[in-house]
Inverse folding.
């Protein structure tokens, strides 16, 4: 089973020659990072074969190829989610495209709810590992033996160390924790949040895990970062909403931009 990554990579190369080092996927409210890319071409997903256009407001659905901190990068500004159509392979072609364009590293970002009081809304959290609570997997149906993918080092230790180093250099250490994937699109219940805490999660969200599995399947090294936009259900007095996700992600954007730029510089040399 394979997607249209090669075909899409050709379309990108026709618009901008070159090979790329780091691929990024931007989550809810984080699209502003794509504006930082220099010498860029911007290609709407609708021009890329089999690229899913997200139905989520705040996802812009364009591929941006260029340089960030002098490093050649491809940014996928906007992702499609499992909950949009029930397809865990929905991001297969976009991740394959990054790989075909030469990206050895994937940096995935998302918005997430915190389960830890000390990791407050507005702050970033580096993902150290995940729990796949959805029960879904983008490798279902894969026939190759490669489907029995080792996930014990999914979130690359060297990349995490690099992110922690650049965070400390800017005087603000970054929290690190386990991300638990719920299918969504409804938010969790307070009971589910208590369960998630008991099971060892530090944050909850509705994305990223399928792309990480796919990227590892393709042999990419992975780093992932959440922007915490709220506390988990039952941990805050007001209701959870996508409006809050978008507005708090925007508030955390400056810090996120600073970290991502420094990280790309650190690992891209
Ligand atoms: N739960 C799931 N997804 C989310 C959350 C949350 O609390 N916040 C942002 N995305």
């Amino acid at each position: 089973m394979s997607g249209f990554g090669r075909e899409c990579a050709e379309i990108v190369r026709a618009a901008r020659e070159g090979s790329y080092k780091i691929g990024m996927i931007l989550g809810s409210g984080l699209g502003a990072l794509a504006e930082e890319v220099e010498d860029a071409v911007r290609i709407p997903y609708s021009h890329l074969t089999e690229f899913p256009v997200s139905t989520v407001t705040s996802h812009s659905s364009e591929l941006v190829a260029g340089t960030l901190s002098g490093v050649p990068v491809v940014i996928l500004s906007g992702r499609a989610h499992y909950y949009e159509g029930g397809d865990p392979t929905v991001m297969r072609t976009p991740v394959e495209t990054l790989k075909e364009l030469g990206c050895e590293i994937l940096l995935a970002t998302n918005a997430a709810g915190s389960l830890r009081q000390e990791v407050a809304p507005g702050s970033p959290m580096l993902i150290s590992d995940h729990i796949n609570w959805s029960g879904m997997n983008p490798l279902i149906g894969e026939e190759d033996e490669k489907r029995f993918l080792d996930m014990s080092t999914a979130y690359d230790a060297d990349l995490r160390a690099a992110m922690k180093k650049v965070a400390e250099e800017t005087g603000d250490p970054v929290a690190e924790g386990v991300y638990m994937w719920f299918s969504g699109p409804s938010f969790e219940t307070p009971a589910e949040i208590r369960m998630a805490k008991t099971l060892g999660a530090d944050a909850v969200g509705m994305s990223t895990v399928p792309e990480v599995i796919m990227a590892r399947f393709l042999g990419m090294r992975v780093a992932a970062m959440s922007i915490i936009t709220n506390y988990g259900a039952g941990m805050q007095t007001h209701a959870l909403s996508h409006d809050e996700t978008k507005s708090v992600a925007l508030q955390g954007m400056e810090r996120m931009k600073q970290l991502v730029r420094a990280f790309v510089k650190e690992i891209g040399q």
Observations:
- The chain has a mean pLDDT of 94.
- Residues 111-113, 182, 187-188, 204-206, 229-230, 232, 240, 245 surround hypoxanthine (CB under 6 Å).
